[in-house]
User: What shape does this take?
Amino acid sequence: LFLSGVALQCDGAALNIAHAPGGTRLLLAQSSVNDLSNRKAQTNLTDPRGTAVICSEDALSIEGDGRLNITAAADGVRGKGVVLKSGTVVMYSEGNGFATDGNLQITGGNLLTCAGQTAASGNVHGVFLRKVGDYAAGEAFRILGADGGELAGFTLRDDCADLLIAHEGFVCGETYVLQSGTHDVCTFCAAMQ
Assistant: This one.
C-alpha cells in the first residue's frame, strides 16, 4: 500500500488488510504526511482487530521517507508482527499502541508512541526507549545525547501512561537523557533488545 498525503477518519479500521501472503508493505511517500484515525471506538465488533486504526491479518512493514500520524480511540496497529524500517510514525492511542500477535521490530526510522494502556503488547526488538509513567498533554520532552546536544524534541498532544520512542540517530551503546522541561526523566543506554 502506498500512502501519499492520505487523510482518513473512520469509525472502525482506517486500513483493514485481509490475508496477504508474505505480509504487507506500507510505503510512505517521500515528504508526505498521512493521517489515519478512528476517534470513535467500536465496541460491538466480534473481531478486536476491527477496533484498531490499522488491522493486518499478516505481518506488516512500514517504510519510506514520509510521516504516518495515527490517532486511535482503541488500539493503533494490530497484526501478526510489525517492522518499522524507515519513515516517521507518531501514534496516540487510548488503548495499546501496537497490539501484535508477534513482535514489533524497529530496524530504522523514528517512532513516538503515546499509549493510554501499553505502547506495545508483544515483544519489542531494536534500539528504543520505553518509559511507563503519568504524562500529561502539553508536556514537552527533549532527548539529549552524551555531548548534551538535542537529538530530538516533542510535545505530547494527549495524556498517556506508556511512551515508546525510537530515533534513527540512536547508536547502540551510547547514553542518552530523556528530559521534561529541565527535569531529567531518565538516563538510558541505547541497547539492541
In short: DSSP finds no helices and 21 strands in the chain. The chain has a mean pLDDT of 88. The longest strand covers residues 129-135. The two ends are 29 Å apart (CA to CA).
